[in-house]
Amino acid sequence: MRTNPIGRVAAVLVALEGLGLGALTVWQIVAIVAGDTASIDSAIALIVLTAVGAAAVVAFAVAIWRGRSWGRSGAIVTQLLILAVALGAATGAYAEPTAALALAAPALGTLVLLILAVRAAGREAKDEASA
Questions:
Q1: Is-contact 7 107, C-beta < 8 A?
Q2: Mind telling me which residue stretches traverse the membrane in this protein (predicted)?
Q3: Which helix (H) or strand (E) holds 90?
């Protein structure tokens, strides 16, 4: 199945999120090398988890580009997790509303595009089945 233009834009945005996670992984490695960590074991575990997450998000982007439904599903879950992190950043004793907005705005826009891509893919599948 060919991906529609909305799906392509969503794939690019999800890929940028994956690249952002990759950059975060590099930043964490630099922090370990600079000795800016309290627990080396925890820091290494966090690096591994962040790298796995980056790989998963990039895989979702590739799948969306290729028109696979599992990529859209995974990316929707990713956007919801980002929105949960943004909500946490906006509330609590150490609230950072600016950081929360910087996380939430692109996640919300990407989520809307992903939902539109799902709807378009559903219409295309229905048209193919009836033809």
A1: no
A2: 9-30, 42-64, 76-95, 101-121
A3: helix 69-90
- Kindly give the confidence (pLDDT) of every residue in the chain, 131 residues in length, as a single tens digit, with 9 standing for 90 and above: 567 899 999 999 999 999 999 999 999 999 999 998 999 999 999 999 999 999 999 999 999 999 999 999 999 999 999 999 999 999 988 999 999 999 999 999 999 999 999 999 888 888 888 87
> Which residue type sits at 46?
L
Contact 79, 50 (CB under 8 A): no
Place of tokens 């999120």: 17
pTM score, two decimals? Answer: 0.91
What are the extents of the domains in the chain?
5-120
